[in-house]
Amino acid sequence: RGDHSFRELHSPAAGPSQSVISPRPALSVTSTSVMSAAAVNTTMADNQVWKAVKPYMNGGLSGMGATIIIQPIDMVKVRLQLGATGGPLRVAKDIIAKDGFGSLYRGLSAGLLRQATYTTARLGIFSQLTEM
């Protein structure tokens, strides 16, 4: 059973407890075969699926990246709108002192979900419409 050059075949002619052993060449993967397979493969720029998906990926990832950067600023803005006293830096300092740094990112999942759906679709569709 430890030799991988043989495989066990269950044939319909053999009973349920009988099996037939047949020789099978062992699979050999070498660095040369992997490199030659990669050389035959086309680049991502030539891949039609990637060309169709790329605008959506770029839109979604850029929107999500922007949300991660803007979230703390937005949290401070909302606190100021709700009546917190002091300037933005003072409000940010108070939030961090009271609730910790992570509290600046409360609500991030909702923002990321919005960007993953809305911005992905918006920028992907915009890209396709401008190519027409």
Could you characterize what this model shows?
The chain has about 130 residues and is mainly alpha-helical. About 60% of the residues lie in helices and about 5% in strands. The chain has helices at about 30-40, 50-80, 90-100, 110-130; strands spanning about 5-10, 20-25. It has a two-stranded antiparallel ribbon with strand order 1-2. It starts with 5 loop residues before the first strand and ends with a helix.
Amino-to-carboxy terminus distance: 60 Å
What's the alpha carbon Rg, rounded to whole Å? 29 Å
The helix tally amounts to 4
In N-to-C order, the SSE pattern is EEHHHH
For the biggest sheet, the summary is: 2 strands, antiparallel
Percentage beta strand: 5-15%
Task: Give a topology summary.
Elements: E1 6-9, E2 20-23, H1 31-40, H2 48-81, H3 88-99, H4 108-130
Antiparallel strand pairs: 1-2
List keywords for this structure.
132 residues; elongated; two-stranded antiparallel sheet; single chain; 4 helices; mainly alpha
In summary, what is this structure?
The chain has 132 residues and is mainly alpha-helical. The protein is built from four helices and two strands. The chain has helices spanning 31-40, 48-81, 88-99, 108-130; strands at 6-9, 20-23.
